[in-house]
Amino acid sequence: MLAVYVFFVHFTVLTNCDNSALFIQGVDCVRGFFVISGFLIYASFCRASSLKTYFSNRCRRILPSYLFIVIIFSLALFFVSSCSFNEYFSTEWLRYLLYNLSFSNFAQPTLPGVFTHNTIDAVNGSLWTIKIELMCYIALPLIVYICKKIRLNPLLLLSVLVLLSISYSLICNHLYNQSGNDAYLIYARQIGGQLAYFVMGMIMYESLQFVIKYRRYLLVFGFVAMAIAYSFPDASYIIKPLAITCIVIPAAFIGRWGYWLGKTDISYDFYLMHFPIIQVLIHYNLPDSIGLIPSLMLAFAVIVLLSALSWHFIGRPFLRRKSTT
After folding, report:
1. What's the pLDDT at 22?
2. What pLDDT is stored for residue 263 in this prediction?
3. Which of 4, 6, 68, 98 is the most buried (most CB within 10 A)?
4. 324 falls in which pLDDT band (50, 70, 90)?
5. DSSP assignments along 44-87, one per residue
6. pLDDT for 325
7. Would you say 266 and 243 are in contact if contact means Cβ atoms under 8 Å apart?
8. C-alpha span between 173 and 185 (Å, rounded)
């Protein structure tokens, strides 16, 4: 659901259409991803028999689809590029491939002659989150190790980390307001700012019985807190980690919808693939020629189809066990 909402946000941004109906900020859905990751990855770590098994599970889940999608689009978009064969497969193409395969999308987000007439020429504006995800995967065992080493209650250390992350975001926001330098907004969305959400997911797993017992109350609290955060933007950095967490985790334990949707887990592939597909449709002026709604429906159908193929033929075969979170 979060991935689909991000798709709608990116579609409206890339096509320059009215997005007033999307009252939730797309970045808050991304923050929801980190909350869910914190919950699930912490659960995976607790079940893993060793650190090697933990990292093996993480690599087998996240790398195959990511590497495949980066490589296949770097090749396929040659047919969209305005450059010749030699101009396209040049040093710039190689830089794109190497930087994106190493999770440094920010260093080379474009390909030669690709999407140059689109509003945004980046090939895949969604990839910036993956490097943060990987950093969180590395940070998690360190956090657990520190807890055991100093014999500290995990909830206490996790709460301190949330407060430090919130403080980091507040400092970045203050520096942005003082200087107007957009770099501070970029810093704010790096791991220092997103760690609060990942760690809040860990806290929810540590408090799982409480979450399940009071899930409906927590969900109502989350929505109320989120409304307050949107009403008072200056306080949003403080409120949103708790608000978003109290929405996405309790919601997963209400009813059976999560079980049925989880049988085919294409959300990760969908998230990785949607941005360049929308870009291709815009490149060929489909929103102008067939209309926004038909273009939206076409983009969604194509992304779902390709995501399902990517999951079934690339992502799932690498998961040797029946279930890997």
Report:
1. 82
2. 63
3. 6
4. very low
5. HHHH-SSHHHHHHHHHHHHHHHHHHHHHHHHHHGGGT-SS-HHH
6. 47
7. no
8. 7
